[in-house]
Amino acid sequence: MSGKYQKVAYYPGCALEGTGHAYNRSTKALGKALGLEITELKNWNCCGAMEVKNIDPKLQTYLSARNLSIAEDMGFSTVMAPCNGCYHNLKKAEYDLANDPASREVNGRLSNKAGHKTYEAGKVETIHALDWIKQAIGEQGLKERVKNSLRGLKVANYYGCMYTRPRHIFPEKDRGPGSESTSQPHFMDDLLAAAGAENVEYPLKTACCGGAHTLSDSDTSTKLVLNLLTTAEACGADVIATECPTCHTGLEMHQARAEKVFGKKTSVKILYFTQLLGMALGLSPRKVGVHENFSESRDLLRAKGLA
Amino acid sequence: MTIDRDISLDAIAARIDWIAEAPDETLVASAPQLAAELLALGEAILERWLTAHGGIPTQGAVEGFRLLALHRQGARGDPSFNACRETCRELVYQHNLAQSAPIGPQAVRALRLGAMVARHLALFIGGKLEVAGLGEFCCSSRPLRQSDAAAPAIETVISGA
User: Fold this and answer.
1) Domains with residue ranges and CATH for chain A
2) Which of A23, A105, B107, B159 is the most buried (most CB within 10 A)?
3) What is the ipTM of this complex?
4) What is the pTM of this model?
């Protein structure tokens, strides 16, 4: 264990308290099984998500900066956000505060008005759950802890859009060997391979799922998701591994909708990478929240000896 | 390879589906031609977007591929267009695999995956033609990216590369 990220602040965000609860449960269970400490931010607020960002991006910067300020006040130099949207927004706030004087001015004004310390760029590092496991434990550390190998499980790793875009808010990526790639992300592939899974070639690992338009233009979202699912199946995948609650829910819901509306049935399963790693460490499917997923994967897990 | 300029997005999608579902023997028999056709269909998809927005699709190339130049042209001033950046690059990659692999299973696999990637591009652009904001989920740092609109024209970028 490297020691880096051994103790981090935890920002679950709204989705992990709702539709993405299985991700919340499995992230916490995985951390505990690996001996990593996470401390949830006290009185955290929404990261600004899509709604605030689209209307007033500087207000979104403030909302995310407030969470970073809380982490700093709690004595943490690192905050881990498993949700791609939260992770993206905290990184964007960091970028804005470092590069945009107007954003700094708004953040300072609103922080004063709210009566808390103004967050300044560079004080707290935001990482994703993938960075957390990759850096704190690493592939070798995982291999040593695997009790129930994922051997025989073919996985398509789907990273979604917000984990790598836009590139300029992720200065630590694309730094060569050991760093994450924005064009061909691989951290999830690396970790699941270490747990014994067989990663399949998946050419749509960062392709759009139509997430933001899932309600306003459902047919487009369903068609995009259906292509993600059929491509994963064509690549031989049993499972699509996810690392974002919005992607995960979108894949699950539109898998059902594709069958209902377009008569297109797909059987590939959808699981969070934290659920797969947790089961590889010997945790039960229930312990990692498989029963909270919308799609049913227990038959497959039983067939693979994971349940 | 050139594609009929008047071909509709639906017709493009139908041709892509045909390639994706063609028997192995058909794909093996004309792998290099079909790889080139998939790339041209990808270009035709991006042309639909550009012309629908009053643009003149570039004839230039980025890294040797017109598809990538068309993507860069479409993304200028519209960061949400970057949601199909890797899709375009994957299409080029599968094209290259299909072109360079020995005629056989590898080429067939590259063609099938290339067709699925091209299908995603068609769905994404078709969706954006209906709802322009599609793709903004990931690229919502729009205010910071507006300066991209004032970037040098694509031809300048290419000649300077």
Assistant:
1) 7-128 (1.20.1050.140), 148-303 (3.40.50.11810)
2) A23
3) 0.89
4) 0.91
